[in-house]
Amino acid sequence: MAQLITAADQLDFGIDDIPSMPLPTKVLMVRPLHYTVDYVINPHMADQVGKVDTIQAHNEWELVRNLFDQIGIEVRIIEDQDGLPDMVFCANQSLPYIDKEGNRHAIMSIMHADQRKKEVPYIEQWYRQNGYEVHFLDENKIEDFEGCGDAIWHTGRRLLWGGYGFRSSHKAYEAICETFEVPVITLELVDESFYHLDTCFCVLDEHTALIYPDAFTEEGLNLIHNLFDEVIEASKYEAVELFACNASCPDGRNVIIQQGCTDVNKKLRDAGFAVHEVSTYEFLKSGGSVFCMKMLLW
Ligand SMILES: NC(=[NH2+])NCCC[C@H](N)C(=O)O
């Protein structure tokens, strides 16, 4: 079953056929002491260089942290590094996994932008200190891969969704599929404003996803609709300006999301989710929100 799936006609399983995987119980967060917008590597950062209010950013980060804590997720914290202003976005430097025996693994990223490459060893060190087996992709064969920014676990199942096109190469998923022995469904990203899969695709529970449809190809949308019974769509405004799809729903019930996503939040509540709004305005300036500000762990 460990296959790479790029088109809906390759799907020979339903979600219930995929072995289950425990839900994450922890998050790693990186305290943003050196967070700024210093360079432009995605469209959201244009015009934002030097415009981050550092104190406000730290306050917002604390509130995000409190919300994870409140919904029962244990928060682990490390500090960021001087000269690495994007390190707070700790969804990007790795992809963790728990195998069927309960052993923990992490594949380290190959960051697309030179400015972010030095973040990876700090996260690797944390994994080593916390009993994870660390794996590397072959840099001679794979150009880039930005961890859980693009690679997203299906809630409760040993199935990975892999976005590619801007920050991660399709080739990375061949290697990940082999290393973790899980099926990977790849989704091409076509709009630069949605440069990571986590900007336009959020798995809410086993049967429900929140997406921004125009960020995908028709084939991608087919794949998503094939595996999810319910697909909630975000409007352009809430997806681009408020990063609605960059929400996080670690337990299949509580959704932590940027403040003001009125339309999406109504749809989430109608579908039975508990919505927790939080301001991440200072992080939106860098092209990130709740999902990017943490790494889900077991
Ligand atoms: N998973 C995410 N979308 N992370 C946000 C990363 C933001 C960061 N400024 C970058 O462009 O790399």
Automatic annotation (TrEMBL):
Pfam families: DDAH_eukar. Its EC number is 3.5.3.6. It comes from Fodinibius salicampi. Pathway: Amino-acid degradation; L-arginine degradation via ADI pathway; carbamoyl phosphate from L-arginine: step 1/2. It comes from the Bacteria. This is arginine deiminase. It catalyses: L-arginine + H2O = L-citrulline + NH4(+).
